[in-house]
Amino acid sequence: MSSPSRVDLLLDLADDELILGWRNSEWTGIAPFLEEDVAFSSIAQNEIGHARALYELAARELGTDADSVAFDRPVAEYRSAPLVELRRLEWARTIARHWLYETADAIRLETLKSSDDAELAGITAKIDREEVYHRIHAEMWVDRLLGSDEGRPRLEEALDELWPYALGVLDDELRPELVTRVEAKLGRPLPDADAVPRGEHETELAELLEEMTSVRRSAPAGARW
Amino acid sequence: MPPVYEVFRRERPGATMQHAGSIAAPDERFAEIYAREQYGRRGESDALWLVPRDAVQEIDDFVDEFDLKYRRVDGYSLKERLKEARELAGSSRRDEPGTP
Q1: Do A42 and B41 touch (CB under 8 A)?
Q2: What is the distance between the alpha carbons of residues B46 and A69, in angstroms, rounded to a whole number?
Q3: pTM for the full model?
């Protein structure tokens, strides 16, 4: 597997964060209880903030601006992992996706933070300082659901469903580490699965982009907000 | 109902902790994350205290059988005394000849 270009790498990260931020924001106003609504919405905003910072770096190389990169590409050019594209407005699946993503993202960020590319190392280190709290949030929810008779089977089922997608967040060489961390938490082996790789898109992505860009597309090109 | 935690917030080092609000959370781990998200993520706090409401000892019965207001640091109500003084002054003015 050839290594992706710098722009592609930035877009892998940025698209994951933007699309996951959008998906998580779908809970705003309808989360299970008020405090969680505030916290999960805040996490969603953080993810979109990370996306913005990464799009700005990518935009500089592409000679455009962050908004254009974020909103004006055709669906096929998005580099997000299918895991973040799925619409799963059910709490056990949301927590399963959140925790699987944060666990995979932590592994990815650990390698990027020690990159020779000082700018990339810097921005991923900065992002990771916020992701720490996302991981704490995800872990505490997983522990809570695993510790309850109703929560455990629902979370386990969601994790099994999403596992092939979780593998797809990472490149081949980082996947064994994800298996190790997830199995250690669950205390059981994971099902054998073929990763749903980055570059394939779920049908939900087109619907999401249609809605996400609707206001931007409603205004004449070059409109300033 | 989940337990309630009272949150105190300090705006900057050296300032006093002030009550910020309360949050409901199933346990201390949740309470910490929710407090961080609600009272700390915009840089508005440099420290937070989380106190389970059960740990707060509340006193709300104060005996004042003999109207001991003179012991209060703010003394008698100045507003009341001013009103009395104005009434006195008003009645004396009316007594003076030639005044409307």
Answers
A1: yes
A2: 36
A3: 0.86
Average pLDDT over residues B23-44: 93
Taking domain A6-188+200-218, whether its CATH number is 1.20.1260.10 is answered by yes
Q: Is B41 on the interface with A (CB under 8 A)?
A: yes
Which backbone phi and psi does B4 adopt, to 5 degrees?
-105, 135
The mean pLDDT value of chain A amounts to 95
Q: What is the pLDDT of residues B50-64, one digit of tens each?
A: 999 999 999 999 887
CA angle A103, A138, A183 (to 5 degrees): 45
List the single residue in B with minimal CA-CA distance to A35.
Answer: B34
Residues of chain B found within 8 Å of residue A39, distances taken between Cβ atoms: 33-34, 37-38
Q: How far is CA A156 from CA A84, A101, A142, A188, B98, in A?
A: 18, 15, 10, 10, 96
- Per-residue pLDDT of A28-77, as tens digits, reads 999 999 999 999 999 999 999 999 999 999 999 999 999 999 999 999 99
Write the ipTM.
0.82
Contact B41 A136 (CB under 8 A): no
How many helices (H) and strands (E) in chain B? 2, 3
**Topology adopted by domain B4-55:** Ubiquitin-like (UB roll) (3.10.20)
- Chain-centroid distance of CA A189 in Å reads 24
The verdict on a CB contact (< 8 Å) between B38 and A144 is no
